Amino acid sequence: MKILKPSLLFLLSASLAFTLWSCDDDPAGPDLDDEPDPPSFDQVELELSIFEDSDHFSNSSFSTEDVMPHFETKEEYFTAYEQAAWYAWFAQFYFETMALFPRAYFNQEQWGEPSLDGNTWVWEYAWSYDGESVAFKITAEDTGEAMYWEARYSISTQEENIDNALLISAQDYHDGSGGDWQMYDLMEQDEPVFEFTYELDGDTTTMVDLSFDDEEDGRYLYERDDEISTLTFWDISDGQSVIEWNNETGEGFIESPDYQNGERVCWDENYQNTECS
């Protein structure tokens, strides 16, 4: 993978910050009634409420400074429920962080007046700094079952020019059953850096799959079937870990190489370790 030159990295970082900070600006374009709504992914939500009550934790200190040494040594410090909570929080952090990118670049208020190229909606806008510029082109095409979106960029600097490179692609299914999006390498366009796929059943998120092109960064898979939720994640060094819990009763289990030598350990409705049935 090529290293992004500082000027290019600055322009893209600045444009991301610009779109994030400008979300409350009034759009200057025409009536948007006929335009497709950009994918927001705001409806994607993991059910992690059982891990949000501090009364369920027996350890008084959960600061990063205190707990990280125990992760590094794989020393048994947490109950099964507490260890599972840490994994759930890490997964939620990854999911929410990755969702920032499409929310920023698919920010319709920055796009201005659209045009139509056949059946494809097109929006274009640009940002410049000190004689160098970055331009974005957003497109939306109805494929029949979904709206397919792309965000492409062109950069002009004293060192290098990049023309119409793919940054993000996304699909938003018309029936509300889910969608996906991919973010691509800033310099190499063959494969996405990471992919985010989700499925919905009404207002309930039933699946979220976040995978990275770099195997060392692993994969996170969240699944929900009625009251049962499962979170599986893969790490290149430690292998597969699974946590599963009942959203109604609070019971669950963890099975991870980082906890009790990979043996399945269960917790009960009081969030204390118990024998697995």
Written account of the structure:
The protein has 277 residues and is α+β, with helices and mostly antiparallel strands. It has one domain (68-274). It has helices at residues 6-21, 64-73, 80-105, and strands at residues 115-117, 120-129, 132-142, 146-156, 161-173, 178-184, 192-201, 204-212, 219-225, 228-235, 239-246, 252-255, 265-267, 273-274. It has a 14-stranded antiparallel β-sheet, with helices on one face. The protein is elongated and about 65 Å long. The termini are far apart. Mean pLDDT is 80; it is low at 1-11, 17-32 and 70-75.
Instruction: Summarize the main sheet.
Output: 14 strands, antiparallel
Give the domain tally.
1
Protein structure class: alpha+beta
Question: What overall form do the CA principal axes indicate?
Answer: elongated
Q: Give the C-alpha Rg.
A: 22 Å
Overall pLDDT confidence: 80
What is the helix tally?
3
- The strand count comes to 14
> Topology as H/E string?
HHHEEEEEEEEEEEEEE
Strand content: 35-45%
The end-to-end span amounts to 48 Å
- Helix fraction, binned, reads 10-25%
